[in-house]
Design brief:
0% helix; mainly beta; 113 residues; globular
């Protein structure tokens, strides 16, 4: 059974940084792409970053150059390092495997201007 637990969110000022963690269980990360999504208030959930089974990363244009995703397979954990944060990065951040399984609760990120 897949379980996903996101953490690390919080309130930061514009230009600040946060590091999100996603502890997984029931996923063989060596063979799965792991995705990070975010959902801003009143908007649809959007994909922001991905890391493949062999470590290749991809980023959505709004976060490219500012966000970095990585993983520790021994810890079954995926990370999202977010730098140079902007108010438009505000939202609830989720991780999931590809294709998506059961969603976790996410972690709230709020960037103040």
């Amino acid at each position: 059974q897949v379980q996903l637990v996101e953490s690390g969110g919080g309130l930061v000022q514009t230009g600040g940084s946060l590091r999100l963690s996603c502890v997984t269980s029931g996923i063989t990360m060596r063979f799965r792409t792991m995705d990070w999504y975010r959902q801003a208030p009143g908007k649809q959930r959007e994909l922001v970053a991905s890391i493949s089974g062999d470590g290749l990363t991809n980023y959505a244009p709004p976060v490219k150059g500012r966000f970095t995703t990585s993983k520790d397979m021994a810890q079954s954990t995926v990370y999202l390092q977010m730098d140079s944060l902007k108010p438009e990065d505000t939202g609830v951040y989720y991780c999931n495997r590809r294709p998506p399984s059961t969603w976790g609760l996410g972690t709230q990120v709020t960037v103040s201007s």
